[in-house]
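User: I'm new to structure prediction. If I give you an amino acid sequence, what do you actually give back? Let's try with this one:
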Amino acid sequence: MVKNIKRYRKDLEKEGSALAEKDENGKYIHLDFLPITFLLPADYNLFVEEFRKNPSSTWIMKPTGKARGIGIFLINRLSQLKKWSRDSRTSTFAAPSAKDAYVISKYIDNPLLIGGKKFDLRLYVLVTSYRPLKCYIYKLGFCRFCTVKYTPNTTELDNMFVHLTNVSIQKHGEDYNPNHGGKWTVHNLKFYLEGTRGKEVTDRLFDEMYWCIVHSLKAVSGVMANDRHCFECYGYDIIIDDNLKPWLIEVNASPSLTSTTANDRIMKYSLINDTISIVCPGGEIADVRWNKVPSKDCYGNYELLYDEELAQSDVLERDSKSRIGMTSLAMRNRDTKQRPTTTWK
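Assistant: Good question. You get back a string of structure tokens that encode the predicted 3D arrangement of the chain. For your 345 residues, that looks like this:
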């Protein structure tokens, strides 16, 4: 995912796309939703160069072949990385084998806190086609909270109950509550933010999350096997910082559907049911010659996030109408009456 997003940005730059615009510091204005990330051991020298620009920064390491928070740890010194690599006698970094490859990302050390605790979001995205891209967002996502209040103090870097939101880790904490499982629905988060930050700011935040989801999928669309009879439900992990900026942390293929609470079980049962309703509308048995487009009645708790064919037809329609003398203001007013618009579109 990381490599493809980087490639996607560069391709847009070569095309002169406004999406790849940068600010005076060289940061992407519209596509800056991924923390600085490297793959070790391949990108070790690049990582060291970046680390030395800000030696006091904290980084998080994740094994590429594991899940549920296993093997994740934080570092803030190069010596910690060399010790971990089991090769501190040399000046170069080397991992024993490919299975020990790690992703290392700059740690988001200013997360948005609720009740003093760090949390992230798990959003489910259903992709039924990559070329053209068509995806749906599940409205019943949830937040996962840590059980211990957050502190940026470096003495707590080893305390995973402070830094990692994975339920598989938090459920072993003394303060874990098995009734709610340390989870909040996305609806509750939205109500909380609307009450504390305002509706306009909250809507913009969710638009930005949808923006990063769509462009992350566009970034990999060229390398994914595209079969109109296949689908995938992804689990997106997103962290919001205290400036209400969303950061894409991880995308899970075939995310775990294990439930930890009664509400969790109901939600994931609905997720499976609604997914099947979209890919097999009407409960009909799938067939290799079958290429049906589901009606909105089949969406359940899903909503259409992006339809590339529809987006392209809208552009062509607007271009043709502008050529015959319609003003852009008139088009915007009419479009607004027909369907709600969002900033990410």
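You can read the tokens as a compact description of the fold. Here is one thing that stands out. Residues 199-220 form the longest helix (22 residues).
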